[in-house]
Amino acid sequence: MKVFVDMKAHVKVLATLGVVVIVGIPAWVYLAIRHFLSPEGFWQEFFLLGVGVLVLGGIQVSFAIVGLIVLVLIWIIPEWGESIIGRGVK
Q1: Greatest C-alpha distance within the chain
Q2: Is 32 helix (H, G, I), strand (E, B) or coil?
Q3: Which of 18, 29, 40, 58 has the fewest CB atoms within 10 Å around its CB?
């Protein structure tokens, strides 16, 4: 008994995981900076939170919007998704 698996679905899932990783980069950068600086006291916490929310939060939101658009194009519009993933995958 042979089981046929749609490889395009697997590639779409891998593309989705790639988009999720890229979208999460600013949050991981913030967590790494927070870990290495280890702020103590109210003003250090306040400054680090402000920088994290304003700078990295804005980047995170823009990455999320672009990532959502890419995911919609890959999963919903089949012609565009096939052109990104490649037509050689069968």
Answers
A1: 66
A2: helix
A3: 40
